[in-house]
Amino acid sequence: MGVLDVLEVPNILLGQTAEDVVEFDRSLSTFVDDLFATMHVYKGIGLAAPQVGILKRVFVSQYENQRLVCVNPILELYGDELESEEACLSIPNVLATVSRYSYVKVQAYDVNGNRFNQSFDGMMAIVIQHENDHLDGVLITDKSLNTRYNHDQSEGIEKE
Predict the structure, then answer these.
(1) Which residue range forms the structural domain that includes residue 90?
(2) Which end of the chain, N or C, is more open, meaning fewer C-beta atoms within 10 Å of its C-beta?
């Protein structure tokens, strides 16, 4: 598994819309492994393909014991709207408060091309919404209700 470079703002690729994955082959599996490796090295809990310069609709996340790969996801958002303070590996030292829904239903494909439907709440629902935004070229600063700079990453704030 290889560790990829995470793009940071103002890289133009971060604002572009990703394309659907059409081939579910060994290269996709290797890429997903690399996304997880990169996410762990950067101490994140989610990472989307555009964040490493690949404009494909793929993201990974892992929070506590939940590990998720979403290829070509479609989200259904429901429940209450809540304010979420989020960090992003592509926007170092920034915390943004954004509005998220408390529940999300994901329809997507796994790395092998198998379709699945799964619902999430709590932190995983937030992470999934955050990562899916990356696939549409949307950053937390684009939808921020409040943004602040955090120059001390040792405060224990979890990054996406």
Answers:
(1) 12-155
(2) N
